Amino acid sequence: EFVLKSTVGPGFDTLHPYEAWLSVSIGAVGGLIIGLVTEYYTSHTYLPVREVAEACKTGAATNMIYGIALGYKSVVIP
Fold first, then answer.
1. Among 72, 70, 25, 30, which Cα is nearest to 47's?
2. pLDDT by residue (tens digit) across 41-69?
3. Which residues, 6 or more positions from 74, have their beta carbon under 8 angstroms from its beta carbon?
């Protein structure tokens, strides 16, 4: 059990070790999800990058539209 001075207002906050463990665990899972989604949307191994490369063959405007749409799509999960 940890007793810390409150950052807002007078008084003290009591923190338990399981709260720290929970925060670290949730942060690690969130970081893993963000890393995996980033790998999917930026690696040549996966479909989105190959689709952008295919869109480049038809012209600059198609490439820009597809790239912007893919960028919007990539931030839905994280």
1. 70
2. 889 899 998 988 888 898 889 889 988 99
3. 37, 41, 48
- Tell me the pTM: 0.69
Q: How many Å is the Cα radius of gyration of the chain?
A: 21
Distance CA 8, CA 6 (A): 5
32/42 Cα distance (integer angstroms): 15
Q: Please report, for residues 7, 53, 65, 75, the alpha-carbon distance to residue 62 in angstroms, rounded to integers and kept in the order given.
A: 51, 11, 5, 21
Report the alpha-carbon distance of residue 49 to residue 42 in Å, rounded.
6
Whether residue 52 contacts residue 70, with contact meaning beta carbons closer than 8 Å, is answered with yes
